[in-house]
Amino acid sequence: MPNNDPVPENVIGMSLEELQQKLLQMGEPGYRARQIMHWLYKKRALSFGEMTDLPQALRRRLEEEMAVRLPEIRKVALSQDGTRKYLLALDGDPEQSSEHTIEAVAIPEGKRLTVCLSSQVGCAIGCPFCATGQEGFLRHLLTAEIVGQMLVIQQEFAEPITNVVMMGMGEPLANYRNVMKALRLMNHADGMALGARRLTISTAGLAPGIRQLAGEDLQLNLAVSLHAPNDELRNRLVPVNRRYPLKQLLAACREYIEKTRRRITFQYILLRGVNDSVKYAHQLGQLLSDLLCHVNLIPVNPTGQNGGYLRPAEEDTGTFARILLQYGVKTTIRRERGTDIRAACGQLKQGSKESSGPSYCRISTFQASEGMDD
Ligand code: SAH
Ligand code: SF4
User: Fold this and answer.
1) 66 pLDDT higher than 90
2) Which of 158, 232, 253, 282 is most buried (most C-beta within 10 Å)?
3) Are 64 and 49 in contact (CB under 8 A)?
4) Comparing C-alpha atoms, which of 205, 132, 193 is closest to residue 359?
5) Ligand 2 centroid vs 345 CA: distance in angstroms?
């Protein structure tokens, strides 16, 4: 017999206000919401039963009417450099029948613990060098699933997570509402209480989303995946450029910088023989010379599916960087981590279809190295 009981509401992902409202509806005082959030986000509780400063009767009611549901760790791959990649199963969206998996990555580095989270299952943008892009789009993640990635990873480490980058699978600005709600919970004093400057969104360049972000009262870091200095090349490498060509994208970036007074990081994957020539370095330098920005050069990571794409020789990467510096554009070369477990940028994909070794995953690590404010 099918079970028609309603699925209890997940407390993860609820804002303080929503939780207060829920408690009031239950005839309970609203101040309990703060206590519950404290348990979930600061004391790492995984059930209402653990929340010992709540009256026992309330704990029982909460267990009946609500749930603490997190993604489930299916696999962990540990890199030699300490990076850990998680394959997570989503219990998910009650409207979805089949189970989806996503990947998230943890990068410990000194006092920092950065997590790279996914925003969608798959991605609709389809950049040819990116493993996620090759899978197509399956669905958006719920707020609970975005925050949940962080909470399950936090359970694995004694030290607290210090930085979050939305650079896993998917395009965060295409799932704007859920991503922003998740980031607000991470930032909230009663949530994870992470400073906004420790939170980074990476976008393929959805101009309207960038404008919207400029109007938010949350001073996040913004990273824009540029990858090409002209429309012809960018149409191929980041196909959403056809919808928001460079002129429109850079106008949105300018507006963002003017409104927020914040520096943007432009990410530029170097693909040998495709976008790494001296000519393109000059074009990029000219394009960005008067912008408050920083360029992060990323030698492409192999994904197994991006056949044709190779890293440039080290000296060519150096030459590219030096040309940008001539234009006064601050530039760094990203140091990759986790490549031995395919946890590096563009290498993340749904794990269920593994064919050759541990090939699920994608992350970026640059937050852990340079280019972002502390
Ligand atoms: N969709 C967003 C965020 C996720 S991708 C975006 O594109 O920005 C995070 C970063 O990884 C992007 O800069 C993306 O271009 C980069 N990336 C994708 N595939 C890569 C690969 N094979 N090697 C190196 N970086 C890659
Ligand atoms: Fe999507 Fe980003 Fe991959 Fe492009 S690089 S396909 S936008 S996840």
Assistant:
1) yes
2) 253
3) no
4) 132
5) 10
121, 241, 269, 347: which to mutate for ligand 1, most atoms within 8 A of CB? 269
Query: How many C-beta atoms surround the C-beta of residue 341 within 10 A?
Result: 24
* Residue 267 in contact with ligand 1 by CB distance below 6 A: yes
Question: Which ligand 2 atom is the nearest neighbour of the CA of 120?
Answer: 8
3-state secondary structure of 324: helix
Instruction: Tell me the DSSP string of 103-168.
Output: EEEEEEETTEEEEE--SEEE-SS--TT-TTGGG-EEEEPPHHHHHHHHHHHHHT-SSPP-EEEE-S
Residue of 156, 79, 162 whose CA lies nearest to 113 = 162
Q: How far apart (Å, rounded) are the C-alpha atoms in residues 286 and 185?
A: 39
Q: Per-residue pLDDT tens for 67-105?
A: 999 999 999 999 999 999 999 999 755 555 678 999 999
pLDDT digits (tens, 9 = 90+) for 331-370: 999 877 777 767 666 676 665 343 333 333 333 333 333 3
Ligand nearest to the CA of 166: 1
Element (H, E) at 254: helix 246-260
- In contact, 268 and 284? CB cutoff 8 Å: yes
For each of the domains in the chain, give its residue range(s) and CATH number, in order of start: 9-67 (1.10.150.530), 72-369 (3.20.20.70)
Closest ligand to residue 167's CA: 1
Active-site annotation holder among 123, 253, 345, 361: 345
Q: Among 132, 44, 171, 109, which Cα is nearest to 338's?
A: 109
Ligand 2 and 123: CB distance under 6 A: yes
Cα–Cα distance, 256 to 183 (Å, whole number): 18
